[in-house]
Amino acid sequence: MHAQSLRTLIKALRQKQISSTELTKHYLDRINKANELNAFIAIDEKHALSAAANADKLLKNRDGNILTGIPIAHKDIFCTENMTTTCGSKMLENFESPYSATIVKRLEQQGAIVLGKTNMDEFAMGSANENSYFGPVKNPWNKAHVSGGSSGGSAAAVAAGLVPFATGSDTGGSVRQPAAFCGISGLKPTYGLVSRFGMVAYASSLDQAGIMANSAEDLALVLNMIAGFDEHDSTSIDQPIPDYLASLNRPLTSMRVGLPGCFFHPDIDNDIQAAIHAAVRVLEQAGAKVVDVNLPLHSLWIPCYYVIACAEASSNLSRYDGIRFGHRTANAESLRELITRSRTEGFGVEVKRRILTGTHLLSSGYFDDYYLQAQKVRRMIQEELHEVLSQVDVILGPTTPSCAFKLGEKITDPTQRYLADIFTVAANLAGLPALSIPAGFSKTGLPIGMQLIGKHFSEQSLLNIAHNYQQSTSWHTTRPKEL
């Protein structure tokens, strides 16, 4: 049952082959058996079963919406009224939001059953899901390896068949990188296409709500439910939303795919390079034309991203002062001590590192030299990507330079962990849509991800290419060993 596509599960519910209560219990049982993965921070079994019972009543009367009765999970960065929203941090360990995020509300309006909140790197800062206050998430393919971050809990949950799909957030690759590490499909929409209201901020000009599922078809189905203007989000774009399912089977005969040479340097795992070249041949056989493209500013992506991300993180996380909400120290004799000790006790090492870095970058004497220069470079990167995408429909390459590394392997070297985002951060800097889909396995049995980056609001083209590829391959249907 848990190996079925989202469309198949929807059909089974509609045809009464299974009830929502049975489906919900099935996934809850799997979650309880998968404790070792540490994919969930919170599980709301009582509320989920109650919602499933209501869904069954609607389905019995042939009522309800598309996702009525379908179990899902939310990354614990999205505010939810019925569960805590921790962001994987001690700072918000007991925080209960008075409202739900727009993406949460829209999925609930479509009838989805929320099973729980998934684990994540603290405040979405990380590429391995080792920075969570609630412990690291393990990769379902090999529990000695990381699941990727920061949406590693959602990725592991989908890959292990604990939920049909899950939400995630993507600031520099936090949906696509864990999707690649766990062998599933993950989409970061165009900045502004999906509401950010109720998503706890890390770096506001880069953050984007996204989705993770087993296939491009599942992503398209869910994107139809969550895309669209939201008056509560000042960055939301008001424009017509197409039917993303309608164009999935469009032939690729007129599609031009750009292949950057800089994505295939010697530091990239040989297995990954071979898998991507094999994927290119599949697309060529489907009618796509593959052309070489150049991205000379590629080496500036990571430094530019981390300057801007850390600066915005420093500003956004200043609100956690131990006074208004969040962790508050029990031992302080002055206001200064209260704020200092609350933040010291509430934040983890990586969050402190990025706050300190960002504060330094924004300080007098360094703002012009670093932050302002990074914004200028960002504009140059945007213009370069727009120029390349005026010549091709999509840019194709590996999602990550390596497969999932071992737990603890890079924990003492932050720079190496930051480089795990080397291929993904550009889409966030430019606000472009991008997705990762499974493209094979390494010789050691770990998943390999292929990334597609498109023009603004070209989700239809990305999903069309991904779906065509998945119709010709079976990587997305391969599941890790049963728990």
Structure overview:
This protein is an alpha+beta fold and 483 residues long. Helix content is 37%, strand content 14%. The protein is built from 15 helices and 13 strands. The chain has helices at residues 6-14, 20-33, 45-60, 102-109, 152-159, 176-182, 216-226, 270-285, 301-316, 335-346, 349-362, 367-389, 414-418, 425-430, 459-472; strands at residues 40-43, 71-75, 113-118, 138-139, 142-146, 165-169, 185-188, 209-213, 256-260, 289-293, 394-398, 434-441, 447-454. It has an eight-stranded mixed β-sheet, with helices on both faces. It has a three-stranded mixed β-sheet with strand order 1-3-2. Helix 4 links the parallel strand 2 and strand 3 (113-118). Helix 2 (20-33) packs antiparallel against helix 3. The two termini are 14 Å apart. The model has no long low-confidence stretch (mean pLDDT 97).
Assembly of the depicted chains:
single chain
Series of secondary-structure elements, N-terminal to C-terminal? HHEHEHEEEHEHEEHEHEHHHHEHHEEH
Could you tell me how far the N terminus lies from the C terminus, measured between alpha carbons in angstroms?
14 Å
Question: Which structural class do you get from the secondary structure elements?
Answer: alpha+beta
